[in-house]
Design brief:
Strand order of the largest sheet: 1-3-2-6-8-7-12-13-11-9-10
Shape: globular
Radius of gyration: 21 Å
Order of helices and strands: HHEHEHEEEHEHEHEHEHEHHHHEHHEEHH
Mean pLDDT: 95
Strand content: 5-15%
Largest sheet: 11 strands, mixed
Number of strands: 13
Structural class: alpha/beta
Low-confidence stretches: none
Helix content: 40-55%
């Protein structure tokens, strides 16, 4: 269906436009659901971004939304807006498979807190997004659901681990997707597919899963680095998704009973960091930073190039703390994981050993966490209340498909290039990946890092970039040619 007021198909509308149109009865939630289901039928066979799609359930949710509109009264902010959830996040009645065939029948009895927030906000939960097994690759594929392709180029990764989420948003299957991020798993897929991806402040969106028959003691890095976030086609989509998922939960070991402030901040200081001691940025990556810095200056922000080596140090700490703890899970990964995750992790451990040695000591590990606290304090002092940092998302353009299976040397390059992805989880600050357009047929973009609980400031600056960037949807011409 095409919206007669805008001339655009409903699937090409933002979440805010859809919510407003449903409220105003310009179109119904059922018409919205039917439009997005048709778009999924058109595009998903080529991309394999969404799995376990149940049209009858989606249409029943949409019908309930239409009934609420007819009744009137206060309506939730995402009423009738399609949203996808990730296969490693609990949604009642759906498998939390993590892409593992042996876990295909692990059907959740309850929603994760973030999914419950989306449901309470009125969203139509429309499909589950694909991920690599155990969500530990920057590529998306598994033995249970197969490989997800980038809507711009099948020869390049859609990112990972929220690659299905990013590919589905870019292709117009849903305006908002829930994802999670421990090393770039929201921000990097958004970059690869040309979407917006927000990793919120640690503790803002609860990471607690429903209590099951068997409890799993998450490693400390998972408790202190992994967050749920939102991907969307626009900055406003991400803002709406974030506010729906924020559900203060004191059952979360790092949860805080706070919500990000709303408002329209004024001009801010923008510190541009191109390299924090890792990989030198590709010329195309540098060009994206140049564009974003110029646009922010034009928008009235104060922009300056700085050196901030603490980000490089934080990235190196990530490879110590996360990988040492992942090693304690290898028996389960070896037992249930597929060959891709085993090969990728083995090469990643080898690359990390270039910095930390084959067997980091307990003292290295303890000092790593102690140093983490110092770096958090230093970055917060640098940012204050009115500064953000502009960095690459990655030092390279989107990686070639399955580059982490190409051998130890290539994986070492990938890890070095991903320093902007790795630094942020260690420190727990919010960060957003914002598109800047296309270069050589692939999406490009930048990352913005803000102070803790300064999501409003971060998204305000992201909007200035979005307003000046040239955005187009992928045509999937390669799929039609095939």
């Amino acid at each position: 269906m095409t919206d007669t007021t805008s001339g655009r198909p409903l699937w090409d509308h933002s979440a805010a436009e859809l919510a407003a149109g449903i409220r105003a009865k310009t179109f119904s939630a059922t018409e919205v659901a039917e439009a997005f289901l048709a778009r999924i039928e058109e595009t998903n066979p080529a991309l394999n971004a969404l799995v376990d799609i149940r049209p009858e359930e989606a249409l029943a949710q949409a019908a309930a939304a239409d009934a609420a509109v007819a009744t009137g009264g206060d309506l939730p902010p995402l009423l009738g807006v399609p949203v996808s959830t990730k296969i490693n996040t609990s949604q009642r009645g759906y498998a939390s498979s993590h892409g593992v065939p042996a876990w295909a029948g692990t059907v959740a009895q309850d929603d994760a807190v973030c999914v419950a927030g989306l449901r309470e906000a009125g969203a139509t939960l429309l499909g589950r997004s694909n991920s690599p097994a155990f969500a530990v690759r920057w590529f998306t594929g598994n033995d249970l659901h197969g490989k997800t392709l980038n809507p711009w180029s099948p020869g390049h990764t859609p990112g990972g681990s929220s690659g299905g989420a990013a590919a589905s948003v870019a292709a117009g299957m849903t305006p908002i997707a829930q994802g999670n991020d421990i090393g770039g798993s929201v921000r990097f897929p958004a970059y690869c597919c040309g979407a917006v991806g927000l990793r919120p402040t640690m503790g803002l969106v609860s990471g607690v899963e429903p209590r099951g028959a068997e409890e799993f003691d998450s490693p400390l890095s998972f408790q202190t680095m992994a967050v749920h976030g939102a991907l969307g086609w626009t900055v406003d989509d991400v803002r709406l998704g974030l506010h729906a998922m924020v559900s203060p939960d004191l059952n979360d070991p790092v949860g805080l009973p706070v919500r990000p402030p709303l408002g329209e901040p004024g001009p801010v200081k923008v510190a541009v960091v191109r390299d924090a001691g890792g990989a030198k940025p590709h010329p195309g990556v540098n060009a994206a930073i140049d564009d974003a810095a110029r646009w922010l200056s034009e928008a009235g922000h104060e922009v300056e190039e700085v050196e901030l080596p603490l980000l490089g140090e934080a990235a190196r700490l990530w490879s110590l703390l996360l990988y040492q703890e992942l090693k304690t899970m290898m028996s389960e990964i070896e037992r249930f994981g597929d060959d891709t995750v085993r090969i990728s992790l083995a090469a990643s451990f080898t690359a990390a050993a270039e910095t930390w040695g084959e067997q980091p000591t307990l003292a290295d590990y303890i000092r790593g966490y102690a140093r983490r606290g110092t770096l958090i304090s230093r970055l917060q002092q640098f940012l204050g209340q009115d500064r953000i940092v502009l960095t690459p998302v990655c030092a390279e353009p989107p990686f070639e498909q399955d580059a982490d299976l190409a051998g130890d040397a290539r994986v070492s390059e990938l890890l070095a290039a991903q320093w902007p992805m790795q630094a942020v989880p260690v420190l727990g600050f919010p960060a957003v990946s914002v598109p800047t357009g296309l270069r050589d047929g692939l999406p490009s973009g930048v990352q913005l890092i803000g102070g803790r609980f300064q999501e409003d400031l971060l998204l305000h600056v992201a909007t200035a970039i979005e307003a000046r960037a040239t955005r187009t949807r992928p045509t999937l011409s390669w799929a039609q040619a095939g």
